[in-house]
Amino acid sequence: MSWLIKVPSSTSNLGAGFDSIGLALNLYLELKVKRAEEWEFVPASACLEGIPRGKDNLIYEIAEKVADLYGKKKELSPCLVEMKSEIPLARGLGSSATAIIAGIELADILLDLNLSKDEKLQIATDIEGHPDNVAPSLLGGCVIGHYDGKVNCTQIPVKGVTFVAVIPNFELKTKDARAVLPNEFSYKESVQASSVANVSVAAICQGNWKLLGEMMNKDYFHQPYRKSLIPHYDELHEYLSLQAYGVFLSGAGPTMIAIVDDKNVFNTVRQWKNDYPDYQWLSLHVENSGVYVETKQEAVKQD
């Protein structure tokens, strides 16, 4: 018996939706899993070269945490795991969140836990600390979440737009991006910041992408601070905003994402690529199905 686990990537924060709004994108982490004598993680994509190949791999560490949570650590039998990924590491596209979801799914199938989606979401959010990356990768679509020890999420359908990722050739670690954020806001600043976030949610619900773009430019929570870590931010933001509904920093960065009407995306992105050839450009859509797990029975040879 073997298993296939396929986890979509995610973008989070969406301007003022800091640590609370994210959506799944059609880039994937894929695991092919089968029983083995010892744990081994084999990278089958260039972006995964150099990852830990044994029990120090993040996916195993997450699976072990889940097993320990249910008192089944000793029952987590070794596997050979072939890993493929289309998700650039440390670029703000949820690569660590996909690993967390993959690790939970791996524990679930190996230990026959039969966890519900709510249980998986609670575990993932407890590990990550906020739901905006892990919830979309698990559930799919656009997810708005709240976490205070218990996670609450709601999904919103998204259609008619393409999320164009502009990926630079350098990494930005989340811990470095967190370090530049303020420790507190004044009461007045908090009211302004939350009102921008509230209107952002309403705009997503209505599919009013122009309004969402305006709110993204008014973000108080993270973009004004993190853009200092991204040399190209102001120039690229101004350039993309001429033709996009809105532009935002994906996750902790350094990837930026422009929201573009599906009808105009081909010609628009072709022009952008021509003007800024040093970046990787990906035209992405919302993945509405979330994580996918398939069990494969090995064929039995007949004598």
UniProtKB/TrEMBL annotation:
<dbReference type="InterPro" id="IPR036554">
    <property type="entry name" value="GHMP_kinase_C_sf"/>
</dbReference>
<dbReference type="InterPro" id="IPR013750">
    <property type="entry name" value="GHMP_kinase_C_dom"/>
</dbReference>
<comment type="function">
    <text>Catalyzes the ATP-dependent phosphorylation of L-homoserine to L-homoserine phosphate.</text>
</comment>
<dbReference type="Pfam" id="PF00288">
    <property type="entry name" value="GHMP_kinases_N"/>
</dbReference>
<comment type="similarity">
    <text>Belongs to the GHMP kinase family. Homoserine kinase subfamily.</text>
</comment>
<keyword id="KW-0791">Threonine biosynthesis</keyword>
<keyword id="KW-0808">Transferase</keyword>
<dbReference type="InterPro" id="IPR006204">
    <property type="entry name" value="GHMP_kinase_N_dom"/>
</dbReference>
<feature type="domain" description="GHMP kinase C-terminal">
    <location>
        <begin position="201"/>
        <end position="277"/>
    </location>
</feature>
<dbReference type="Pfam" id="PF08544">
    <property type="entry name" value="GHMP_kinases_C"/>
</dbReference>
<protein>
    <recommendedName>
        <fullName>Homoserine kinase</fullName>
        <ecNumber>2.7.1.39</ecNumber>
    </recommendedName>
</protein>
<dbReference type="InterPro" id="IPR020568">
    <property type="entry name" value="Ribosomal_Su5_D2-typ_SF"/>
</dbReference>
<dbReference type="GO" id="GO:0004413">
    <property type="term" value="F:homoserine kinase activity"/>
</dbReference>
<feature type="domain" description="GHMP kinase N-terminal">
    <location>
        <begin position="57"/>
        <end position="141"/>
    </location>
</feature>
<dbReference type="InterPro" id="IPR014721">
    <property type="entry name" value="Ribsml_uS5_D2-typ_fold_subgr"/>
</dbReference>
<feature type="binding site">
    <location>
        <begin position="88"/>
        <end position="98"/>
    </location>
    <ligand>
        <name>ATP</name>
    </ligand>
</feature>
<dbReference type="InterPro" id="IPR006203">
    <property type="entry name" value="GHMP_knse_ATP-bd_CS"/>
</dbReference>
<keyword id="KW-0963">Cytoplasm</keyword>
<keyword id="KW-0547">Nucleotide-binding</keyword>
<keyword id="KW-0028">Amino-acid biosynthesis</keyword>
<comment type="pathway">
    <text>Amino-acid biosynthesis; L-threonine biosynthesis; L-threonine from L-aspartate: step 4/5.</text>
</comment>
<dbReference type="InterPro" id="IPR000870">
    <property type="entry name" value="Homoserine_kinase"/>
</dbReference>
<keyword id="KW-0067">ATP-binding</keyword>
<keyword id="KW-0418">Kinase</keyword>
